[in-house]
Design a protein that fits this description.
This protein is α+β, with helices and mostly antiparallel strands. Helix content is about 60%, strand content about 15%. Strands 3-4-6-5 form a four-stranded antiparallel beta sheet, with helices on one face.
């Protein structure tokens, strides 16, 4: 019973972690190096994460500077950023790429909040699926004679408490991201 609950907790933690990582890549009004985490560039024929070929820094609130370690990939980096769904315009001086992050329009902010809410809902669904799996494992263990009906009830209660606490974490992370996006 304990390993079922520990497994469920670990999986729920991963679901929340994945959601937080996705939130980091959602653009808010401020510059963030995490915005560029999902960008891959063609580096000698291989799709390579941007942060493995360049330093991404945020010297000011609305400015991102990307400094490639190999100057020959600067064009590929610029193209990858232009093709991305970030809707930013990189400028390149031959050594570094500078990206001004423009403030978001009210309409765009609302779209981004919708995306964040959708990401949070996916995390909640994943957590509820993990709860269902854990409860099924507990019932199977009872059927196999490994645990009693009381153990199943206690286990289900613990799994429900875990579920509630992780859904609260999702809601708190969503509220923080929403506040960040709607900040002017």
């Amino acid at each position: 019973m304990e390993e079922t609950i520990l497994d469920a907790e670990e999986r729920m933690q991963k679901s929340v972690g994945t959601m937080v990582d996705e939130f980091a890549a959602i653009r808010s009004g401020r510059a963030s190096a995490a915005l560029f985490d999902k960008i891959r560039i063609d580096y000698y024929g291989e799709p390579t994460p941007l942060n493995q070929v360049a330093t991404v820094s945020v010297p000011e609130a609305r400015l991102v500077v990307i400094q490639p370690w190999d100057k020959s990939v600067i064009g590929a980096i610029e193209k990858a950023i232009q093709k991305s769904e970030l809707s930013v315009n990189p400028s390149n001086d031959g050594k570094v790429i500078r990206i001004n992050i423009p403030p978001l329009t009210e309409e765009r902010r609302k779209e981004i909040v919708k995306m964040a809410k959708n990401t949070a809902e996916q995390a909640r669904i994943a957590i509820r699926n993990i709860r269902r799996d854990a409860n099924d494992q507990l019932k199977k263990a009872q059927k196999d004679g490994e645990i009693t009906e009381d153990d199943v009830k206690r286990g289900e209660d613990e799994v429900q408490k875990l579920t509630d606490s992780f859904v609260e974490k999702v809601d708190a992370a969503l509220a923080a991201k929403e506040k960040e996006i709607l900040e002017v």
